Amino acid sequence: MKYQVYGDYGYTSETLLEEFNDYQEAVDWANGYCDRDFGGYNVIEVARFAASGEYVVEAAFRNTEEEEEEYFY
User: Fold this and answer.
1) What is the DSSP-derived secondary structure letter of residue 72?
2) In a 3-state reduction of DSSP, which class is residue 16?
3) Contacts by residues 27-34 (CB-CB < 8 Å, ≥ 24 positions apart)
4) Separation between Cα atoms, residue 47 and residue 71, nearest integer Å
5) Which pTM was predicted?
6) Among candidates 29, 31, 35, 40, which has minimal Cα distance to 7?
7) Mean pLDDT, residues 27-32 taken together
8) Neighbouring C-alpha atoms within 13 Å toward the C-beta of 17
9) Is 14 helix (H, G, I), strand (E, B) or coil?
10) Which residue of 4, 35, 46, 60 is most buried, as measured by CB atoms within 10 A?
11) Is 42 in contact with 49 (CB distance < 8 Å)?
12) Domain-by-domain residue ranges, the chain?
């Protein structure tokens, strides 16, 4: 299964940042990316596409004014 790390998926600034075959590698990479500066994105998501084509978020990192928020689904 492929896991993609997106910045601002679904927005005009949507960018595929990296792609991994391993879920934990994808989460670790995204976590490290967010520790730096979020690259100007508001949301970083680790996601996969279901067989139906549905975008499925596995983990999300949201850049808030006070602090970083991390969500696992």
Assistant:
1) E
2) strand
3) 27/58, 27/59, 29/5, 30/5, 30/59, 30/61, 31/61, 31/70, 33/5, 34/61, 34/63, 34/68, 34/70
4) 12
5) 0.83
6) 40
7) 94
8) 24
9) coil
10) 46
11) no
12) 3-72
- Per-residue pLDDT averaged across 13-40, rounded? 92
Rounded distance between C-alpha atoms, residue 45 and residue 58, angstroms:
7
One-letter amino acid for residue 2 of the chain: K
For 6, 17, 47, 66, the CA distances from 73, given in Å and listed in that order, are 16, 20, 10, 22
Q: What HEC string does the chain produce?
A: CCEEEEECCCCCCCEEEEEECCHHHHHHHHHHHHHHCHHHCCEEEEEEECCCCCEEEEEEEEECCCCEEEEEC
Q: Which amino acid is at 70?
A: E
